[in-house]
């Protein structure tokens, strides 16, 4: 009976060789990324050392009783590290490497082009990273500033939460370049947003009869804040006469949209751009 | 006495069979460690400032599970191919570095019986980046030259940054952190 139990114990220990090896090494609780670390060992003779972490899988021979040196280069990635020292048995220890101080930003700003006067239209997110590109999770204060020309438009200080700081605000009133800056101590990141005119406002047309129909054109097209609506914006002219209706799309060029419409009878011309309607123009029949 | 002898014989045969069976099971499980399903649960209730749409939630679940299956395969087989698709930027670089240094050192790690409780904590206003916190539970097994040198059930916490790609969400940062 004892022999049977002994055989089973041997088989079990062969099948589960780690049952008695989990002992702790004296490793640091926490290390800053890029710092050197030494781990003391006890005993004598040779052992195999393993470092198992993010971006590193090191195996080397060490002398027990001497310190094991881990160079900062091996510990540049934040995360958990497992240390194993194996001779007859394996001793293990774990520690965390945390991010160093912020050295750069990931700064995302949206959109790249925005109509003026829109609420909650511009947003940005900043993630501070250390010199090894580890996400800095320790709360830091990021300053967001929006400048239209030299005029400050928006300014806010935001404490990072879980490594992220963000803002959202309205676009300005004037078309032009909007500078968006995130800064933290002596670090800063800049992005640019192009502010463009909003929808046309007070769309007005003038026209005249010409030998082959009517020629109509808009007055300079502005939005309600007086910004020139960008070239390429489509304006739709519709001409209605007794025998039918025709429609022409024309892009704005140098602030004005122009179209030539074939019409011989008395014609009513209307204009629209997007959802904005303009005035109606009545032109008499061809004499 | 005869009864006791028979019982001992039965016990001996039974225990040895049990050990053989357990060893076989262990071998089979080990050989197919990366095939075991990665369990992922996702909670998006705390995500802000943008709410997570249900379609996005399904995409995150699918792609995060795929990412951890890829990690497990890459680290067990010391293969870089498995890392294609699920990672980008720093995360991909670090994982590739891990596999390459494992290839040099000659040992492997296995992540077995993975269970991930994922929580979305930040979703950018324009939906271009999401931060998630993962409480992961798995068996970490380190093998060197066919010998298991470390085998431990661990609970880890990860901070994860994911961004939407052309057809999937990719992990850009996967950083283990101490439990807060």
Give an overview in words.
- The complex is a heterodimer of chains A (287) and B (180).
- By secondary structure, chain A is mainly beta.
- Chain A is 5% helix and 55% strand.
- Chain A folds into three domains: 2-98, Immunoglobulins (Immunoglobulin-like, Sandwich); 102-196, Sandwich (Immunoglobulin-like); 200-283, Immunoglobulin-like, CATH 2.60.40.10.
- Chain A is rod-shaped.
- The termini of chain A are far apart.
- With 180 residues, chain B is α+β, with helices and mostly antiparallel strands.
- Chain B contains three helices and five strands.
- Chain B folds into two domains: 1-31; 36-177, Nuclear Transport Factor 2, Chain: A (Roll), CATH 3.10.450.
- Chain B is globular, with a radius of gyration of 21 Å.
- In chain B, a hairpin with a 6-residue loop joins strand 2 and strand 3 (130-144).
The side-by-side strand order for the widest beta sheet of chain B comes to 1-2-3-4-5
Spans of chain B of at least 5 consecutive residues whose pLDDT stays below 50 are 1-5, 18-35
How much of the polypeptide of chain A forms β-strand, as a percent range? Answer: over 45%
Q: Count the helices of chain A. How many?
A: 1
The helix/strand order of chain A is HEEEEEEEEEEEEEEEEEEEEEEEEE
- Overall strand count of chain A: 25
Query: What percentage of residues of chain A falls in helices of 4 or more residues?
Result: under 10%
Beta content of chain B comes to 35-45%
**In oligomeric terms, what are we looking at?**
heterodimer
Indicate the CATH class of the largest domain in chain B: Alpha Beta
Summed over residues and divided by their number, the pLDDT of chain A gives a mean of: 89
Report the CATH architecture of the largest domain in chain B.
Roll
Q: For the record, what CATH class of the largest domain in chain A applies?
A: Mainly Beta
Order of helices and strands of chain B: HEHHEEEE
Continuous helix count of chain B: 3
At the fold tier of CATH, the topology name of the largest domain in chain A is Immunoglobulin-like
């Amino acid at each position: 009976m004892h022999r049977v139990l002994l055989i089973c114990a041997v088989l079990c220990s062969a099948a589960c060789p780690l049952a008695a090896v989990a002992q702790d090494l004296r490793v640091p609780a926490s290390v800053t990324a890029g710092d050197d670390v030494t781990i003391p060992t006890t005993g004598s003779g040779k052992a195999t050392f393993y470092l198992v972490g993010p971006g590193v899988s090191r195996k080397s021979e060490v002398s027990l009783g001497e310190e094991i040196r881990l160079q900062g280069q091996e510990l540049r990635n934040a995360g958990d590290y497992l240390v194993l020292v194996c001779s007859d048995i394996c001793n293990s220890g774990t520690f965390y490497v945390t991010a160093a101080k912020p050295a750069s930003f990931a700064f995302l700003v949206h959109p790249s082009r925005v109509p003026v006067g829109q609420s909650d239209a511009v947003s940005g997110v900043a993630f501070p990273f250390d010199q090894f590109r580890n996400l800095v999770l320790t709360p830091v204060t990021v300053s967001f500033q929006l400048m239209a020309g030299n005029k400050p438009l928006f300014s806010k200080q935001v404490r990072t939460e879980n490594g992220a700081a963000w803002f959202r605000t309205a676009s300005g009133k004037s078309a032009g370049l909007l500078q968006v800056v995130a800064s933290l101590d002596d670090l800063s990141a800049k992005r640019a947003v192009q502010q463009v005119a909003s929808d046309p406002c007070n769309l007005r047309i003038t026209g005249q009869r010409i030998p082959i129909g009517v020629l109509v054109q808009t007055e300079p097209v502005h939005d309600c804040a007086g910004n020139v609506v960008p070239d390429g914006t489509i304006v739709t002219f519709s001409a209605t006469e007794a025998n039918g209706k025709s429609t022409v799309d024309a892009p704005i060029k140098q602030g004005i949209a122009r179209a030539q419409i074939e019409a011989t009878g008395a014609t009513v011309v209307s204009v629209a751009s997007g959802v904005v309607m303009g005035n109606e123009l009545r032109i008499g029949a061809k004499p | 006495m005869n009864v006791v002898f028979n019982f001992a014989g039965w016990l001996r045969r039974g225990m040895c069979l049990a050990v053989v069976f357990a060893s076989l099971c262990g071998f089979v499980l080990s050989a197919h460690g990366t095939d075991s399903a990665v369990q992922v649960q996702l909670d998006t209730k705390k995500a802000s400032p943008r709410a997570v749409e249900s379609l996005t939630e399904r995409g995150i679940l699918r792609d995060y599970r795929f990412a951890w299956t890829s990690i497990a395969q890459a680290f067990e087989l010391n293969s870089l191919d498995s890392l294609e698709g699920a990672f980008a930027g720093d995360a991909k670089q670090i994982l590739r570095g891990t596999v390459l240094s494992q290839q040099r050192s000659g040992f492997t790690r296995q992540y077995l019986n993975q269970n991930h409780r994922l929580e979305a904590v930040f979703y950018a206003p324009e939906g271009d980046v999401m931060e998630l916190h993962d409480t992961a539970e798995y068996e970490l097994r380190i093998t060197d030259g066919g010998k298991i040198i470390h085998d431990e059930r661990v609970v880890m916490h990860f901070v994860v940054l994911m961004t939407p790609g052309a057809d999937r969400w990719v992990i850009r940062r996967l950083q283990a952190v101490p439990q807060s």
